[in-house]
Amino acid sequence: MKNSLSLSGSGFDGLFDDYDYNISTIFPSYDANPCTNTQSINKNFVIIVYVLVFFLSLVGNSLVVLVICYNKIKRSSTDVYLLNLAIADILFAITLPFWAIYKAHEWIFGTFMCKVISAVQEVNFYSGILLLACISIDRYLAIVHAMETVTQKRHLVKFICVGIWIFSIMLSVPVLLYRTVFDSPQKFKVCHEDLGPQGTDQLRIILRVSRHIIGFFLPLLIMLFCYSFTIKTLCQTKSSQKHRAMKVIFAVVLVFLCCWLPYNITVVVDSLMRSNIVNQTCEVRNQVDTALSVTEIFGFIHSCINPILYAFIGQKFRNSFLRILVTKGIVSKNFFSRYGRGSVASTSGNTSTTL
User: Fold this and answer.
1) If phi over 0 gives left and psi between -120 and 50 gives alpha, with beta otherwise, what is residue 276?
2) What does the alpha-carbon distance between residue 154 and residue 143 come to, in Å, rounded to a whole number?
3) What's the number of CA atoms in the CB half-sphere (13 Å) around residue 160?
4) Is residue 64 within 8 Å of 84, Cβ to Cβ?
């Protein structure tokens, strides 16, 4: 069966399109039906996407880190969250060459790297949504309740970010425990989850769904709550500065949802099917497998989109980056005066040197 190994929550379920697995060999607790998925994604196309995302994410997020670190004095609490978000995307980008090689051939990097690379992708996913949830709370406090003194306590924000990283790692522990390398029936080495003895599958599926509820849907509800009141407040104010900053943040959140929400919904459906809560046929099974392959690509692409949003929507990001180039003598002051427009002088808790 093609691509029917989708039991891991780490987002690599679509990496097996070109192998024909016997599900009863790897997951003996499931009844194997002779379903053949004829809708697999072209392997070369996926490899090209991985390579492009790798370069765009590495370059773009490195520029974000540069801009935020350079503006230490004007750095806001939102900038600290965005800095951590960029670091998470850089770490994930580093793993993409491994997955591209895996897609082209087989897993050749051993069990240790299989666990590490898989866990890094998992941590990136959870830290991303949790950091965006914190940004929504930060903007809610700063705009709705005008609590600038709270949102500007950067030492507190740093502790929150550390807590997010620790919590994301905890959510990724099952990947470290169960991800391993083994031979497929066709003698290809694969990096995937080994479910082990029969009888524990239900518990692991419950853990998988729980991780996605805690690590995605709950932060999503927090974001929806905070931004609904934030939008209401912004509609009652004429501050163009607040509107510009929020426009970028809304774009970041919207893109995250477009990239990751379809995958998470598909993962939940897949889990319900594998636990026999939802009946499945060969046709439905193949559709879900294909959906996992497609939606995970959108999730991977997300890691390189945020810097593009900052560059094209965020005037302050462009100005901050141009100021760095002027300081280093790469571009002239005349060039900056022509293209670097807009105010970047505010250090208010409602604004950000990045946005």
Assistant:
1) left
2) 17
3) 23
4) no
User: Which region among 9-18, 49-58, 89-98 has the lowest average model confidence (pLDDT)?
Assistant: 9-18
Asked whether 123 and 169 are in contact (CB, 8 A), the reply is yes
Question: Residue 289 corresponds to which tokens in the numbers above?
Answer: 């497998």
Q: Three-state DSSP class for 189? A: strand
SS3 at position 90: helix
| Burial of residue 348 (number of CB atoms within 10 Å: 0-12, 13-18, 19+) | middle
Q: What fold does the segment set 13-339 form as a domain?
A: Rhopdopsin 7-helix transmembrane proteins (1.20.1070)
Other CB atoms within a 10 A radius of the CB of residue 170 amount to 13
Neighbours of 243 (CB within 10 A): 12
Distances (CA, A) of 69 to 164, 249, 303: 20, 19, 20
117 closest CA partner among 52, 189, 176: 176
Cβ contact 300:54 at 8 Å? no
Residue among 140, 132, 161 at smallest CA distance from 253:
132
Tokens of 201: 């599958």
Q: Is 90 exceeded by the pLDDT of residue 56?
A: yes
Mean pLDDT, range 304-324, rounded to an integer: 79
Residue 29 neighbours by CB distance under 10 Å: 13
What residue segments make up the domains of the chain, in order of their start? 13-339
The number of CA neighbours under 13 Å toward the Cβ of 178 is 21
Q: Averaged over 90-118, what is the pLDDT?
A: 90
Q: What is the mean pLDDT of residues 177-184?
A: 85
How sure is the predictor about 268, in pLDDT bands with cuts at 50, 70 and 90? confident
